[in-house]
Design a protein that fits this description.
Blueprint (H helix, E strand, L loop, with lengths): L3 E4 L5 H12 L3 E6 L3 H11 L2 E4 L5 H15 L2 E6 L14 H29 L2 E6 L2 H5 L5 H21 L4 E8 L5 H4 L3 H9 L9 H12 L10 E4 L7
Parallel strand pairs: 1-2, 1-4, 2-3, 4-5, 5-6, 6-7
Helix pairs in contact: 1-9, 3-4, 4-6
The structure holds NADP nicotinamide-adenine-dinucleotide phosphate.
InterPro entries: Acetoacetyl-CoA_reductase, KR_dom, NAD(P)-bd_dom_sf, Sc_DH/Rdtase_CS, SDR, SDR_fam
GO biological process, one term: poly-hydroxybutyrate biosynthetic process
Family: Belongs to the short-chain dehydrogenases/reductases (SDR) family.
Length: about 240
């Protein structure tokens, strides 16, 4: 029986590449999304990957949604916390709503998804949890106090939980992408894009498939000795 992998925000962008790569690697994949029904339906039609709609910011919705996925497909053995949003503004203009929305999705969402799945992983003595943070959670970024705080929080969450999972065969890791060639980047003006690329030593944006391959490796049996780690995939833009 193939392992079940659940990818939040797995219907488009980096998450879609992760869902597809996990499916290609032999996993039974479920992908979640927040509200874009059209994209999710198109993704399912194209890939055959089941999609489920709920807000990762709600603990109750996560618990109910995970129960539905497990009833449909079996116990979740690989969880990829990928769902994320930005609500950028310089700090003096950042509203409490912009702060809260980003924290709810990008940090509390990771707790809300991981907590209901954790007991089953402990019982089965196997689990893989991979959270998608960001280069901006490592180095900070102008107008992203909310995003950088949440993404840095994901790294702290991972280091602490990795210690609790270690003896139970559960690894907990982070992938921190730099600038990735997604729909979001297509909206950036060419001049700004040139400046961004000039700051990336490899001289190009990353591809979603490159992030996906990193996740597939961390999910594999081969990666059993890697836990509590943050793998930077940023073309050398920021080295820790
Ligand atoms: N793109 C980059 O260059 C980059 C760089 C570093 C890190 N990252 C991180 O990588 C991850 C994916 O980024 P992306 O650019 O691929 O994002 P994206 O294209 O905007 O897709 C985001 C996905 O997350 C889902 N989502 C958003 N809020 C949600 C919520 N509250 N509950 C459930 N699902 C939710 C979206 O669902 P709908 O389709 O329904 O909206 C969508 O499937 C994020 O965590 C992001 O912070 C991205």
């Amino acid at each position: 029986m193939s392992r079940v992998a659940l990818v939040t925000g797995g219907s488009r962008g980096i998450g879609a590449a992760i869902s597809t790569a996990l499916k290609d690697a032999g996993y039974t994949v479920a992908a979640t999304y927040a509200g874009n029904d059209e994209k999710a339906a198109a993704f399912t039609a194209e890939t055959g990957i089941k999609t489920y709609k709920w807000d990762v910011g709600s603990y109750e919705d996560c618990a109910a949604g995970i129960a539905k996925v497990e009833a449909d497909l079996g116990p979740v053995e690989v969880l990829v916390n990928n769902a994320g949003i930005t609500r950028d503004a310089p700090f003096h203009k950042m509203s409490p709503t912009q702060w809260k929305e980003v924290m709810d999705t990008n940090l509390s969402g990771v707790f809300n998804m991981t907590h209901p799945i954790w007991p089953g992983m402990r019982e089965r003595k196997f689990g893989r949890i991979v959270t998608i943070s960001s280069i901006n959670g490592q180095k900070g970024q102008f107008a992203q106090v909310n995003y950088a705080a949440a993404k840095a929080g994901d790294i702290g969450f991972t280091k602490a939980l990795a210690q609790e999972g270690a003896r139970a065969g559960i690894t907990v890791n982070v992938v921190a992408p730099g600038y990735i060639n997604t729909e979001m980047m297509a909206t950036i003006p060419e001049k700004v894009m040139d400046q961004i690329v000039a700051g990336i030593p490899v001289g190009r944006l990353g591809e979603a498939a490159e992030i996906a391959r990193t996740v597939v490796f961390l999910a594999s049996d081969d990666a059993g000795f890697i836990t509590g780690s943050t793998i930077s995939a940023n073309g050398g833009q920021y080295m820790l």
